[in-house]
């Protein structure tokens, strides 16, 4: 598994597993656990979740999947903005740890920016890190202005990643946020790399997929993985789906492939506000 180097020197797997939408229906729980475990079998050790997903249900699914395999996992969870105060963030993290069945997160993210001052959230994150409950912290859904403000403080500059929406149809970050993160050597974690399936019928994507004898979804993931400094966390709720996602890691897109995808999915001509799902 290829990796991206975090600011502290550790490596973040370049392809992982998302859990948005998991933990919402008990009848699907066994299949979701099996999918995550199959991902671990295939080396997809990066697992991303959040207290928001399924109101904690996704964290419970992840906890069941990683039981007895914690050392194989780079575990990420996220805190609600309304839980991001000094005391509330610590309590929220402890609840997440209980649901996950572990005593430490590898990475804890502010899910999006809310009304709590950044300095207060960073103080809470630093306390959690000092107490050994998290190894690293960072942010999610932060635009260029937010990131610049974050990096004004020493604690903010300790952030390990920014998790944002990025795929072939959401390329606005290429004009400002992504170059800024690359300058700071800050990995970008791309969620929804296949746009929840909405882009899969596009002709350019299908043509490239046909040339490689793979699915459009695999090409969409391979395209994200071809971007410097970016990792991807596609969701897969079945074993077959997670196996397809893992196979995307082995696809090598040619210059011609990239040019065709560029033409079919052009980046916006000017900076746009950060898009969020």
Give an account of the 3D structure.
The chain starts with a strand and ends in a 13-residue tail after the last helix. It has helices at about 30-40, 55-65, 85-100, 120-130, 145-150, 175-185, 205-210, 215-225, 240-245, 255-265; strands at about 5, 10-15, 15-20, 45-50, 75-80, 105-110, 135-140, 160-165, 190, 230. By secondary structure, it is α/β, with parallel strands linked by helices. The strands form 2 sheets. It has an 8-stranded parallel sheet with strand order 3-4-5-6-7-8-9-10, covered by helices on one side. A two-stranded antiparallel sheet has the order 1-2. The mean pLDDT is about 95. It has a single domain, classed as NADP-dependent oxidoreductase domain (TIM Barrel, Alpha-Beta Barrel). The radius of gyration is 18 Å and the shape is globular.
Keywords for this entry:
single chain; 277 residues; alpha/beta; TIM Barrel; eight-stranded parallel β-sheet
How would you concisely characterize the structure shown here?
With 277 residues, the protein is an alpha/beta fold. The protein has helices spanning 29-41, 57-66, 86-100, 118-130, 144-150, 177-183, 203-212, 216-225, 239-247, 255-264; strands spanning 3-5, 11-13, 16-18, 46-48, 74-79, 105-110, 134-140, 162-165, 188-191, 230-232.
Determine the mean pLDDT.
97
Strand order of the largest sheet: 3-4-5-6-7-8-9-10
Radius of gyration: 18 Å
Termini Cα gap: 28 Å
Shape: globular
Structure summary, number of beta strands: 10
- Range of strand content: 15-25%
CATH fold naming: TIM Barrel
Order of helices and strands: EEEHEHEHEHEHEHEHHEHH
Q: From the 3D coordinates, which CATH architecture would you assign?
A: Alpha-Beta Barrel
Number of domains: 1
- Report the uncertain regions: none
What class do helices, strands and sheet pairing give? alpha/beta
Number of helices: 10
* CATH level-4 homologous superfamily: NADP-dependent oxidoreductase domain
CATH uppermost class: Alpha Beta
Biggest β-sheet strands, sense, barrel: 8 strands, parallel
Domain NADP-dependent oxidoreductase: 15-263
Organism: Saccharopolyspora shandongensis
Protein name: Aldo/keto reductase
Site (Lowers pKa of active site Tyr): 78
